[in-house]
Design goal:
This protein has 170 residues and is of the alpha/beta class. Helix content is 38%, strand content 13%.
Amino acid sequence: MRCCERRDKARAAKLREKILANLSSSTPTALGAAQGSLTHEMPTKPITFEQRVTAAVLQKLASIEFRGPENTDLMNRLRQQLAQSSLPGPEVEEVKIDFPNQVRYFNLEDRALAVETASVVQNFIRTQTGGTYADYEIAVRSFVSHEPKPPAGQVEVWCNLGRKTAHGAW
């Protein structure tokens, strides 16, 4: 889609509309986009078109937000690791705010997915950082009471390597 947008924005817009129309008629719940902030404390980004299509097709999705540009390569490798664990995701995104390490889930049925994701992330960070983050912790946090919700099967991974623990104030 990005390639098409670069070459012909009008054609990309038409294609986007066509895909969304086709998907909305067959999988309406997979397209429920979360717009705006999910908490008062921390901003979240809106669900992108790419995430909606991926969620509709694959039904599981993990987005990765992280702090510190020096961690971009590590977070891209984490994204690849999660994809190998049947949990693909969009491009990783650096955020400039301070936050605790956590995997967020938004639907009750996604708690087990979030726990599994947290385990994969924690083991990955501990083993891929040469012992620097051997005591790295990541919490599983419920966001089920927040509205609007993304579709079931989506979790958010928030990695702040400036914090080795999952605890602490925002």
